[in-house]
Amino acid sequence: MMRAAFILLRRDLLLAFRHRTELVNPLLFFLIVVSLFALSMEPDPRVLATIGPGVIWVAALLAAMLSLDSIFRADFEDGTLEQLMLTPHSAALLALTKVLAHWLVSGLPLMLMSPLLALLMNLPIEALPALLATLAVGTPVLSLIGAIGVALTVALRRSGVLLSLLVLPLYIPVLIFGSSAVGDAAAGIPYSGALLLISALLVLTLTLAPFAIAAALRISLE
Amino acid sequence: MWVWFHKLGSPRYFWGFSQKLMPWLIMACCLAFLIGLPWALVFSPADYQQGETVRIMYIHVPAAMMSMMIYVVMASAGAVNLIWRIKLAELVAAASAPIGASFTLLALITGSLWGKPMWGTWWAWDARLTSELILLFLYLGFIALYNAIEDRRSAGRAAAILALVGVVNIPIIHYSVEWWFTLHQGPTTQGMRVGGSIDPSMRYPLFTMMIAFNLFYVMTLIKRTRTLVLQQERNSGWVREMVGSR
Fold first, then answer.
1. Number of domains in chain A
2. Which residue segment(s) compose the domain that A211 sits in?
3. Do A153 and B137 touch (CB under 8 A)?
4. Residue A176 and residue A185: Cα distance in Å, rounded?
5. Could you tell me which of A90, A86, A99 has the C-alpha nearest to residue A149?
6. HEC profile of B136-167
7. Please, which residues bridge with residue B166 across strands?
8. In Å, how far are A101, A122, A189 from B183, measured between CA atoms?
9. What is the Cα–Cα distance from A165 to A170, expressed in whole angstroms?
10. Which pLDDT band holds residue A93 (cuts at 50, 70, 90)?
11. How far A186 CA sits from the closest chain B CA (Å)?
12. What is the pLDDT of residue B98?
């Protein structure tokens, strides 16, 4: 059981590594969106620092959403997904593994790149640990919730806009807690409350989302 | 009881049963509105602070209540469809979504009309307003997903999963919005509190309006479900027979 999950994880990571140029795109998107915000207003350092946490979080959310489609798309089109669902292993575990592999190549790089953007947005150095911590626990939640949306829409040909309509409202709690934690940290206020709430969300989605993803995949594969 | 329930699950039995129920429902709904509307909009007293604008509440509060209740009905019908594969439950969920979205929109519009004279602004990023807006997005997502999938049965089941995910999320979204709002700015104006604090001269017309809105929902729900039943069963024997005999 665990071995199957491990093999699947290694396969997905290897596939991602073979197409590494595609992995850079969400990161570039993340960078461009944040700079667009800075360009769309007066580059007053104080203004940038006020809106910074929110802007970085919104950009991370959009970048995470844009990269979602690749979780199941290729496997769905060449039939691998159907074979995976036919194996005797738990579909929820395999779905969780695929989400984990996806997060390792999309969410984790986003998190690692965020300090650079914090610098661009003129965030104080005290906000950096909060930004990294909230992204570390927040982006897996985004991947897990997003995977439900992808699993529901993977059989459709043009699912891009529909996916964002389904998934973005469900992202709101993560966005609220994430940006408020970073904002509080920048203001020198303790931010552990919001961070713990995101962690609670992570635990909740980690336990429930795999089953929803598996059920949604079954429907899409019919 | 259970036998009757199972029978109701069959589209054909539902058709006959709802046909008999419909006139009674229409009558009850009209009666409730005939009593409720004049009572609430004309005869009930004006508020000492809000004046005549308080009358918006008689539309706004029931609409907001319905918007939340219908989502729960929709998700429950979706769960029934996923677990027991009852066709009718799928149609009930699909028929509920546009009605729920309309009530949500109505609640947002009336709230905004009430907010302008009372709070001095059409829109405030208040916790309740924001969660109601997100609820509207959830409804629209449900409708969009249901319409996007070609095969009706898988569309119904996919949308049911989405509704269930949404129903788990609604409390989380609501509280996150509430905490965000209290974290960042002091409480401005709390919305209306229904219950003990409202005077009986206003409570009873409000209750009448709530009953009227509920009846209206059940009526439109059955009407829409009947249309969907007819559409989905268009190739079955009893529908052909019925249409042929006319």
1. 1
2. 2-221
3. no
4. 14
5. A99
6. HHHHHHHHHHHHHCCCHHHHHHHHHHHHHHHH
7. none
8. 35, 23, 12
9. 9
10. very high
11. 14
12. 95
Residue A171's closest CA among A195, A211, A139? A139
- A148, A156, A208 member nearest B149 (Cβ): A156
**Which tens digit of pLDDT belongs to each residue from B40-96?**
888 877 776 677 777 888 888 899 889 989 999 999 999 998 888 888 888 999 999
Give me the torsion for CA of A168, A170, A171, A173, rounded to 10°. 140
**Residue A177 to residue A195: CA distance in whole angstroms:** 7
Taken as a whole, chain A contains a residue count of 222
Domain extents in chain B? 22-232
> How far does the CA of residue A201 sit from the closest CA of chain B (Å)?
9
- Any CB–CB contact under 8 A between A169 and chain B? yes
Alpha-carbon span A215 to A101, nearest angstrom: 20
Q: Which residues of B26-36 are buried (b: 16+ CB within 10 A; e: fewer)?
A: eebbeebbeeb
Amino acid at A64: A
In this prediction, residue B188 has a pLDDT band, given cuts at 50, 70 and 90, of very low
* Contact status, residue B215 vs residue B30, Cβ threshold 8 Å: no
Asked if B144 reaches chain A (Cβ–Cβ under 8 Å), the answer is yes
Contact A22, A70 (CB under 8 A): yes
State pTM to two decimals: 0.87
The Cα–Cα gap between B148 and B162 comes to 13
Interface with A, mutate which of B82, B162, B184 (most A CBs under 10 A):
B162
Q: What tokens were used for B25?
A: 């429902």
Structure confidence at residue A135 (pLDDT): 94
Chain A CA closest to residue B159: A152
User: How far apart (Å, rounded) are the C-alpha atoms in residues A40 and A47?
Assistant: 12
The DSSP result for A14-82, as a single string, is HHHHHTHHHHHHHHHHHHHHHHHHHHTS---HHHHHHHHHHHHHHHHHHHHHHHHGGGTHHHHHTTHHH
pLDDT number for residue B176: 77
B162 contacts on A by Cβ (under 8 Å) = 148, 152, 166
Q: Is residue B184 over pLDDT 60?
A: no
A94 secondary structure, DSSP code = H
**Taking residues B188-206, what's their average pLDDT?**
61
- Beta strands in B32-107, from DSSP E residues, in sequence order: none
Q: Which helix (H) or strand (E) holds B239?
A: helix B237-245
Interface pTM, i.e. ipTM: 0.85
Cβ pair B148:A153 closer than 8 A:
yes
Q: Would an 8 Å CB–CB cutoff place B3 in contact with chain A?
A: no
